[in-house]
């Protein structure tokens, strides 16, 4: 007979990072509502409104938290929540937010917001530590365990680029607002990032609470049993008013889920029947990923890649273009987005698989950084994202040759070899192992 479920125990299971780390593949659950958000102009108003409604807690993690007016609006929403007595926890990356850290930390801490820096940069000598190359690249926000935001959008104005200043057109980028069972693993990941940044302090507090239970032995046994057998406690909520969207939250970390995002992409591409559309600003996939794209194109699947036309980092552009000739030879269609900087990390396969998140298709995202994506299995959502991609491709230029005009073939091959060598050295210095 199944023992009665202790509500307090269920709360520990829902909150503990252990429940998330116990999974190693995408876990799809139904009963979700997923809304596509284009750019910060749609994300930040929705996010601020959710934080302003927060009653209990807010978990927030980002790579860049800037100090422009848009970012200040998000920061002030977090401060207002803390002033109401809401527990607010913020994690920012020590490199991505380096330029604004002093002021950001001062404002948030004075307002009572808990804020920590993920792998802070204390000086040039910090880069001598291999672990410093593994950055927090996730963009997550979870409010009261009820609504979450996941995507590729940093906390910075759409028109502002850290290296190029104010731009004439907004970046192309996306996020999703999700409600339903899939919020639980997102919250667990946000808590896990906080735990890692705090060197275990938050996790320690949870274990202390468990140890103080008068029935701690039986409770611990049930706790571990539920971690092994339960997907997400949030599934049992009343979701009658939500669309029955199947979704999964997938991450890349440096513990259990090192290849989960990459594996999800490759499996979807291998099963593609009609189309694959992949959008990524930084594109330098490994051999298995390239082979999946090539085989899909060879069997008649329409494969389209939308990559950067306006380059923010020239080395990243050279890396992607080093692969053009190989991919074009298999019938892969390549487009470069020209109206503005491209920062979106989205993809769709056929008419029932789509993903939105922070992960690029390059070695940094697939082998080093902490990344987070939401995968959606829903025809309406895929159709909406497909319409966005079609519009972006219509404003792009198609690449028809693998070499630049006036550049001899031997130089292109030399560039490709140089890029591959640089990627190999970088990954080894960062401590990545295995083949790519």
Outline the structure in words:
- By secondary structure, this protein is α+β, with helices and mostly antiparallel strands.
- It folds into two domains: about 5-235, Endonuclease Chain A (Endonuclease, Chain A), CATH 3.30.870; about 260-430, Endonuclease Chain A (Endonuclease, Chain A, 2-Layer Sandwich), CATH 3.30.870.
- About 40% of the residues lie in helices and about 20% in strands.
- It has helices at about 5-15, 15-20, 40-50, 70-85, 100-110, 185-195, 200-210, 215-230, 260-270, 285-300, 315-320, 325-330, 365-370, 380-395, 410-430, and strands at about 30-40, 55-60, 85-95, 115-120, 140-145, 145-150, 160, 165, 175-180, 245-250, 275-280, 300-310, 335, 345-350, 355, 370-375, 395-400.
- A 15-stranded mixed β-sheet has the order 4-3-2-5-6-9-1-10-16-15-14-11-12-13-17, with helices on both faces.
- Helix 1 (about 5-15) packs across helix 8 (about 215-230).
- The model is unreliable at about 1-15 and about 225-240 (pLDDT under 50).
